[in-house]
């Protein structure tokens, strides 16, 4: 219920449209009851041949109530749907504001297909919270109670029967179906997430599945998941249909009871026969709004599940981050040193530590290389420096303050970053380079393309989704070009030239180090060539720092780095 409380809080921001919806719904409901009541009375009155003016007044009243009902029903739909769309917009904005600081670590916990299902499907499911859960019971109670007060003037017995009908339809039946729904424990949302995940994996892995001849098996898994999702939908629809049938039966039964009581009262002379048709028409009409209560338990349970699935992704984020107004900003006029003090880190759901007791300093303006075998924790260390993940133990300090006091946005705004995997958007070379700044001129971009040996590309050349039309080396060089155009004071480079040939790599590094000569640069690399220019080299293995120093110092020690260098000489 805590998650639904968040949805309710966001919903109540639209108080005006909610109020208009309820008022319009109430008027439309009362107008409908009045319309049919007046029609029943008109039929009975006309049979007694009243004066013409009386029939004219009654007919005019019926027409007026008909117009009122139509107009207010339109107003109800207009305001309720406008409120719903605005509520969904507020919900999406609120969710993405909470989600943004969690990336990219969120992908360690959720598969992309499931995450997409929550962001799209579960948000859409919550549109029913206002239209099917919050608003209909209020309108139903207002219309019913007003109708009961009206009938009470003519017949206390009829009012009591309608009150019993209200209790059954508004309370008893929904509670019974809510208990049944809890036992059914519908898994529609979960199955939809599974289907989205399986479909995403099939599309992303289609080529590999085809190569290894496993496509048919994956397709079968997708079909099975689809059948399971359809089965859950069928269960939900059957429950909804059964609930509506029970409500309809109760409504008709109450109408027959009203007819029987009315006939008895007329036969015993306790009520004028002219009101009998009016009461029957009231009983038929007042239960029109009760149809919404048939699906109330289903949509309440559905909203609970959708809210829980959605906010479980970002739950706890408020406690883990500093209030946004208390972030410390980087000074514009100087570069700060970075220190890691006894830092340890373990990925979620992992049993082994990825980093353990890391203590190292990156002086302001220094050039540092982090080397070691695959899986030694080099990339993870770099990601902690960029605040992609919080350290489990220890502290990372930038100048005089902790990295936890700095927002990701502030840190990344002063950083030039090249990761092992860099995203490229569908568009052109120009579009992807302009991520570094909208104010960049074509001349500046063409100059950088020349530095990274991509001068055979035109700025207007197309880039497919995820850069599918680019080779691995071209992607890396384009990412480096984008970084050089940003030209900030901190450089975090993770295997930036692993797919680039040696001559091109040497040329790129020459330009890159020339541009970053006064900046702080941290380079993760498997290759040990060209590290002589580094101020310090950190050697890692199994999440620990084995040794550190300059190139000459490490070679003189003839330790871990020396052995790695000798092996590299033998291989190449």
Automatic annotation (TrEMBL):
Keywords: ATP-binding, Membrane, Nucleotide-binding, Transmembrane, Transmembrane helix
Subcellular location(s) of the protein: Cell membrane
Gene3D superfamilies in the cross-refs: ABC transporter type 1, transmembrane domain (1.20.1560.10), P-loop containing nucleotide triphosphate hydrolases (3.40.50.300)
GO cellular component, one term: plasma membrane
Membrane topology, from the record: Multi-pass membrane protein
ABC transporter domain span: 338-567
Chief localization: membrane
Domain of life: Bacteria
One Gene Ontology molecular-function label: ATPase-coupled lipid transmembrane transporter activity
Residue ranges annotated for the ABC transmembrane type-1 domain, each copy included: 21-288
Gene Ontology biological-process annotations: cell redox homeostasis; glutathione transmembrane transport
Pfam families the record matches: ABC_membrane (PF00664), ABC_tran (PF00005)
Membrane-crossing segments per the record: 18-40, 52-72, 133-154, 160-179, 249-267, 273-300
InterPro entries: AAA+_ATPase, ABC1_TM_dom, ABC1_TM_sf, ABC_CydC/D, ABC_transporter-like_ATP-bd, ABC_transporter-like_CS, P-loop_NTPase, Type_1_exporter
NCBIfam families referenced in this protein's UniProt entry, alphabetically: CydC
Protein name per the record: Thiol reductant ABC exporter subunit CydC
Lineage: Bacteria, Bacillati, Bacillota, Bacilli, Bacillales
Chain's gene name: cydC
């Amino acid at each position: 219920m805590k998650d639904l409380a968040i949805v309710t809080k966001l919903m109540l921001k639209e108080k005006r449209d909610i109020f208009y919806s309820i008022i319009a719904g109430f008027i439309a409901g009362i107008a409908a009851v009045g319309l049919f009541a007046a029609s029943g009375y008109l039929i009975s009155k006309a049979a007694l041949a009243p004066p013409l003016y009386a029939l004219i007044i009654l007919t005019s009243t019926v027409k007026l109530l008909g117009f009122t009902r139509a107009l207010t029903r339109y107003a109800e739909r207009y305001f309720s749907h406008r409120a719903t769309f605005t509520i969904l917009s507020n919900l999406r904005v609120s969710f993405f504001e909470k989600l943004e600081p969690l990336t990219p670590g969120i992908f360690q916990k959720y598969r992309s297909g499931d995450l997409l299902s929550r962001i799209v499907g579960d948000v859409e499911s919550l549109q029913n919270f206002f239209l099917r859960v919050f608003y209909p019971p209020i309108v139903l109670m207002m219309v019913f109670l007003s109708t009961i007060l009206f009938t009470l003037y003519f017949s206390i017995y009829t009012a009591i029967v309608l009150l019993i009908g209200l209790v059954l339809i508004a309370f008893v039946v929904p509670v019974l179906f809510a208990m049944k729904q809890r036992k059914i424990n519908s898994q529609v949302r979960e199955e939809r997430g599974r289907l989205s995940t399986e479909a995403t994996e099939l599309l992303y892995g289609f080529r590999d599945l085809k190569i290894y001849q496993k496509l048919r098996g994956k397709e079968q898994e997708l079909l099975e998941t689809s059948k399971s999702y359809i089965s859950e939908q069928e269960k939900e629809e059957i429950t909804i249909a059964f609930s509506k049938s029970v409500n309809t039966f109760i409504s008709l039964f109450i109408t027959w009871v009203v007819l029987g009581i009315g006939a008895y009262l007329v036969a015993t002379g306790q009520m004028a026969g002219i009101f009998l048709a009016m009461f029957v028409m009231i009983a038929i009409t007042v239960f029109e709004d009760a149809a919404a209560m048939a699906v109330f338990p289903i949509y309440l349970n559905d909203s609970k599940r959708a809210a829980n699935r959605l906010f479980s992704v970002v739950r706890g984020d408020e406690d883990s981050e500093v209030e946004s107004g208390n972030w410390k900003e980087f000074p514009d006029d100087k570069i700060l040193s970075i220190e890691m003090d006894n830092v340890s880190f373990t990925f979620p759901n992992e049993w082994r530590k990825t980093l353990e007791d890391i203590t190292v300093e990156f002086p302001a303006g220094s050039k540092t290389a982090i080397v070691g075998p695959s899986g030694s924790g080099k990339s993870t260390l770099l990601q902690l420096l960029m605040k992609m993940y919080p350290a489990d133990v220890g502290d990372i300090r930038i100048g005089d303050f902790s990295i936890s006091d700095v927002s990701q946005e502030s840190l990344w705004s002063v950083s030039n970053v090249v990761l092992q995997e860099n995203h490229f958007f569908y568009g052109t070379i120009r579009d992807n380079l302009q991520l570094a700044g909208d104010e960049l001129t074509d001349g500046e971009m063409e100059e950088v393309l020349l530095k990274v040996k991509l001068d055979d590309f035109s700025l207007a050349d197309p880039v497919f989704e995820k850069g599918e039309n680019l080779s691995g080396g071209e992607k890396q060089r384009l990412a480096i070009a984008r970084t050089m155009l940003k030209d900030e004071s901190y450089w975090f480079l993770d295997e930036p030239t692993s797919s680039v040939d040696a001559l091109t790599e040497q040329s790129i590094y020459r330009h890159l180090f020339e541009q970053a000569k006064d900046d702080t640069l941290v380079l993760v690399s498997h290759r040990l060539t060209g590290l002589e220019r580094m101020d310090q080299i950190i050697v890692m293995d199994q999440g620990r720092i084995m040794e550190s120093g300059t190139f000459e110092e490490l070679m003189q020690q003839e330790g871990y780095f020396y052995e790695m260098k000798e092996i590299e000489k033998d291989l190449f």
